[in-house]
Amino acid sequence: MPRRPTTVAILCAMLAAVHSAAILGIEAYDVTVEVDAARGLPAWTIVGLPAGAVKESRERVGAALVNSGFTLPPRRVTINLAPADVKKEGTAFDLPIALGVLVATGQLAPDPLAAIIAVGELGLDGSLRPVRGALPIARRAAQRRHATLVLPPGNVAEAALVSAVPLCTPPNLAALIAALHERRLVPADVPPPANPHDPQAPDFADVAGQETAKRALEIAAAGGHNALMVGPPGAGKTMLARRLPGILPALEESEALEVAAIQSVAGLIDPYSPRNSARPFRAPHHTISDAGLIGGGNPPRPGEVSLAHLGVLFLDELLEFRRHVMESLRQPMEDGRVVIARAAHTVAFPARFTLIGAMNPCPCGNAGDTTRRCSCAAGDIVRYRARLSGPMTDRIDLHVHLGPVGLRTLMSPRRGEPSVAIRSRVEAARARQRARYRSAPNCACNAQAPPSRLDVHTDLAPDARTMLDRAADRVTLTARGYHRVIKVARTIADLDGETMIALPHLAEALRYRPSDPANDDVPPAA
Ligand SMILES: [Zn+2]
Q1: Most buried among 89, 140, 143, 365, by the most CB within 10 A?
Q2: 524 CA to centre of ligand 1 in angstroms
């Protein structure tokens, strides 16, 4: 039971300090919540750059304290969130503020607080609700020896991914204070990890036909290449893209933790299965802002490109995205990360994703379809296609055209090759790449290989080299495009289990270039 405050205790009001933490980027930093309860007109002031939700903590903390059986003496309460020069947001300071107020008003002894780090949102009834960023906070807490991390029960599975830190997850404020009085914090029950394999995941076996597109996606998965599917509505572009994560190799343990940290900061982590070895799949709508796509805000939050880190970013109706939003992808596509600068600090979010785009062949969507008439003028189609800028086109390795699916294919009882069979080929090709790039930092697949790792003379068979030179003369291949063709050919050779890039590998890679007039995927207007 909470101890009733005595008059003497209230008169001996003191300055309280509670250890807590906050998120900057995908890292956590220490925050000390200082609470002073002085005599004077009752007031409640929070300093240390609090954002809206932090300022509102007054209402939640006040109600939670009273409803948990404590008193809120009429005092001039000043709360400082140190360091005071970094903007704080979110609801995680509710719990440390409540603890600080109890110490400052003499309702809780200060010494048990020295060994805890507290984060948590308070409900008006004193219950503890989950907060964002518990995983990075647990990582930070693990660096402070002998400290117990006190956090809401809803965050326990996520925080438990960091095995080095003792956790305590009281159901509510009253239970925590009772445990602190008795100097006995009960270790948290950590639930067993959930099965990472989702039997409901979409499978390539469900997609009838579209063998060229499936082949292109297999190459994309095997080498981490960006791909663009051009085809009429109903050709199955979205259906195909959603099946891509199912043929990607499972995340390794360190990668899964990296992905979990980003999801934790974004508040998107699955509380029951925080470390998921499935690759992320993000499909933002074309009305998204550049801050939503790339990341932004203050404190900065990860955007879709970071939520797709080590997975797939699918942009359906690619040409409907605003031009500057689409162009903002160029920098993360090159660097594999997003750097957001603010006055006080700079934050970097990882963003190594595979971009899959989908678009119609023309404004009406029917160009190239023999069964429906395209109503677009030739000039309209050219203008439409020009919305995809040259630099963006150049960064997409695999351009593939999808025709409409015939009724006979749709009705056929034959099913496509299951994802698990395709994934085994992808995994074998990835294993070859891992061995090849073992010494290269931040390079796990052909798409990430630096130009210095591509040697035209040793990697390409002589006839393939001649073909590449001819192609470079015939079509305008930029330096980047030239390297990208070799990388795609390298992946096709890896899928074949070949060390040398042979003529058929290079020929197939060139077929996926948009600039090859012999294989231009802009169909003539009907
Ligand atoms: Zn049209």
Answers
A1: 140
A2: 10
Cα of 465 to ligand 1 centre, how many Å? Answer: 38
CA distance linking residue 233 with residue 186, whole number of Å: 57
Q: Are 301 and 295 in contact (CB under 8 A)?
A: yes
* Residues 92 and 120: beta-carbon distance below 8 Å: yes
Phi/psi at 348 (5° precision): -115, 130
Residues in the chain: 526
Nearest to 276 by CA among 305, 307, 300, 298: 307
Candidates 285, 293, 311, 282; CA nearest to 220 is: 311
> In this predicted model, which residue has the larger pLDDT, 409 or 338?
338
* Phi and psi angles of residue 58, each rounded to the nearest 5 degrees, phi first: -50, -45
For residue 432, the surrounding DSSP H or E stretch is helix 419-436
Write the burial class of residue 6 (CB in 10 Å: 0-12 exposed, 13-18 middle, 19+ buried). exposed
pLDDT per residue over 82-125, tens digit each? Answer: 998 888 988 999 999 999 999 999 999 999 999 999 999 999 99
Measured CA angle at 34 (ends 70, 32), to 5 deg: 115
Picking from 421, 355, 352, 348, the residue whose alpha carbon sits closest to that of residue 388 is 355
For residue 398, list its beta bridge partners: 227
Q: Can you tell me which residue has the tokens 């082949």?
A: 215
How many beta carbons lie within 10 A of that of residue 436, not counting itself? Answer: 17
Helix (H, G, I), strand (E, B) or coil at 287: coil
- Residue 10: phi and psi, rounded to 5, are -65, -40
Residue 399 to residue 229: CA distance in whole angstroms: 6
Contacts of 275 (CB under 8 A, 6+ apart): 161, 193, 196, 256, 257, 260
Residues, CB within 5 angstroms of ligand 1 (ion): 362, 364, 366-367, 374, 376
Q: How far is the CA of 378 from the centre of ligand 1 (A)?
A: 9
Separation of alpha carbons 187 and 378, rounded Å: 70
d(CA 122, CA 100): 14
CB contact at 8 A, 105 and 37: yes
Distance CA 43, CA 40 (A): 8
Pairing of strands 15-24, 27-38: antiparallel
Question: 361 with 230: CB under 8 angstroms?
Answer: yes
Reported as a single tens digit per residue, the pLDDT across 162-206 is 888 899 999 999 999 999 999 888 888 877 665 555 667 789 988
Residue 476's pLDDT is: 66
Sign of the Cα torsion 130, 136, 137, 138 reads positive
Give the pLDDT of residue 193. 62
Q: Of 349, 330, 353, 351, which Cα lies nearest the Cα of 480? A: 330
